[in-house]
Amino acid sequence: MTRSTRDRWLGYAGRLLVALILLFVLLPTVVVVISSFSSTSVLFFPPKGWSLRWFERAVSYDDFRSGFYSGLIVTAWASTLAVFIGTTLAIVIHRYTFRFKAVLEGILLSPLFIPHFTIGLGLLMLVAQLNLGRGYALVIFCHVVLVLPFVLRSLYVSLQNLGQRVEMAAASLGASPLRVVWTITVPLMLPGLFGGWLFAAILSFNEFTASLFITTQRTQTLPVAMYNYVREFADPTLAALSVIYIVITATLLTLANRFLGLGRILNVDAPR
Amino acid sequence: MTRRPAFVGWFLLPAILTALGLTIAMLTVLQYSVRAYIPGSLDVGGFTLDNFQDLMKGLYARAFLNTVWLSFKTALFGLMLSYPLAYTLVRTRTAWLKSCILIIAITPLFLGEVVRTYSWIIVLGNSGFLNSLLLAIGLIDKPLQLMFTNTGVVLALVHVTMPIMVLMLATGLSHIDIAYEKAATSLGASPFRAFLTITLPLSLPGVVASVTTAFAWTFSAFATPQLIGGGRVSTVATLVYQLGFSSLNFPFAAALSMAGLAMTVVLLAALKRMTRPLQNVGIH
């Protein structure tokens, strides 16, 4: 075999490999979609008949409805607070040095490697010891802690891309440092802020392990309600709910890809 | 560095309060882990080291080793499947293929552990998709037992960790200057050889980062080992939950968490140290 034919075959093999891996990634999604339309409550493959009853049950089941609303409350607060805390911190960290800078940053990034169940357990025991109730505030604080590292990462990237020239121009024209931040830095960071907020919101809405430890019947978020459902029932209601989930997420991501360029947000585009 | 204006303190306040809350919560775990357990009560007794001694018992030691082994396999197989995807994602010039990989490989990242684990239950069950398919084409004559096994758990965990691995590998690969590869091919190296001798070594920092993350994620995964393992696959996470919520033995759950955290830190530090020579490869 000449070298060019060998390279061509290697290319084909590579493409086949990539196709097979994509198939593996897609497989569970495809199976969930098929089962969600099944008419029987016990799953068979291929399903014995088709119906939409599981979709009706998924959107009318009480725990899912309340879980959805709790989830929205927690997500809205947690991602907004995380972006606020992250922005103020990122601006200061990016421009100034102060004592214990590395310690502060290290603590706030530590949830990347501290298991979620440890953080959930710690907060649970803390409120038990202080005799505080397990309300929304606890869940929101927990989610802020968990999503903050991701928010910080996306904010650092957008600060880095900002450059200091416009800020220096404003300062040289006599603007005070706070005014520079408020009228130059923050407006220029807006795309990054939005990206960070969206990222935080999606992560918070889907957070499960820590939420399982610290939520109660009243504050349980959707993933916790779904987990409790799988443990009790085996019917395809959850498959229907998963399909709704997948469709919404894929739509959001496709829109983000079209309008914002997902590759750029996620920082995987090759430099041109 | 410029002089610090007055607003810096105010800007730091929210972050400091958050860090303080997290630190106190972690200190609470530490404090509970050295307290005695009073059966049937949520209050804890005096200071003791018994909890850590109990960790040496067979059941818990086995769960520890099992968790490490699961994490290792997940990271290894995850890397083997994620690397080709990440490479194609960064290097392909076909726009639709790029979008396709981005959407298919990254979407699961935003689906959460419960949805993804549930879909694997339907795939792996005894009358699930995989067994029905294999039975129908006659490859097997009785269903394979995949649920409640380590194999099933690893399969699902690989799927759960793949998106973040692809993402981190792609980030690493996208920062490699393609000119190196072009130089190698223009000097007569085949594309395959150029990949093996240029791109692969340069991408090692990304490999290390993604393996580390996969390891940490698997270690803290709860829904997957709990639902797919069905109580027959013990990991640190499932044991901590059982101890806390079934036995209400919070001191021991805290001790187990602390040991788990200590091990994560040690393993990650060791991984970083072992691969330090590689960290400098990518810098140019």
From TrEMBL, chain A:
Q: Which GO CC annotations does the UniProt entry carry?
A: plasma membrane
What's its membrane topology?
Multi-pass membrane protein
Transmembrane intervals? 68-94, 106-130, 136-159, 180-203, 237-256
Places the protein is found: Cell inner membrane; Cell membrane
Task: Tell me which residues make up the ABC transmembrane type-1 domain.
Answer: 68-256
Q: Which InterPro entries match?
A: MetI-like, MetI-like_sf
Kindly list the biological process annotations in GO that this record carries: transmembrane transport
One Pfam family named in its UniProt record: BPD_transp_1
Alphabetized UniProt keyword annotations: Cell inner membrane, Cell membrane, Membrane, Transmembrane, Transmembrane helix, Transport
Family, similarity comment: Belongs to the binding-protein-dependent transport system permease family.
**What's the protein called, per UniProt?**
ABC transporter permease
Q: What is the lineage of its organism?
A: Bacteria, Pseudomonadati, Pseudomonadota, Gammaproteobacteria, Oceanospirillales
UniProtKB/TrEMBL annotation, chain B:
Q: Where in the cell is it found?
A: Cell membrane
Could you tell me the keywords of this UniProt record? Cell membrane, Membrane, Transmembrane, Transmembrane helix, Transport
- Indicate where this protein is primarily found: membrane
UniProt-listed PROSITE patterns = ABC_TM1
Residue ranges spanning the membrane: these are 60-83, 95-112, 118-140, 152-174, 194-215, 227-244, 250-271
List GO terms (cellular component aspect): plasma membrane
Source taxon at top rank: Bacteria
Q: What processes in GO biological process is this protein linked to? A: transmembrane transport
* Xref: InterPro entries: MetI-like, MetI-like_sf
Q: What is this protein called?
A: ABC transporter permease
Q: Which organism is it from?
A: Salinicola corii
